[in-house]
């Protein structure tokens, strides 16, 4: 419950000023930076929660799965950050990644 709340909080904070029709007008670099920030924070918090916080009634396998998911989310965020920094060299790929993340975020959060 806490991780889903953190994801929604990050999404709302980073999109607070952007209306839905204005969000599509953001340049791909800003969209990728915003989404990479969300993934890095969410991945790091998931990894921290899986490694440090001991929940009673959970198994080692569930901790390992949560740690792997957190690490993969963090790696995806870092990859998006690198793509955001090189958006001028790869404009088509950056535009496609930004559009794909918009669709995933809209379907996953609402």
TrEMBL record:
Keywords: Membrane, Transmembrane, Transmembrane helix. It comes from the Eukaryota. The chain crosses the membrane at residues 37-58, 64-85. This is Uncharacterized protein.
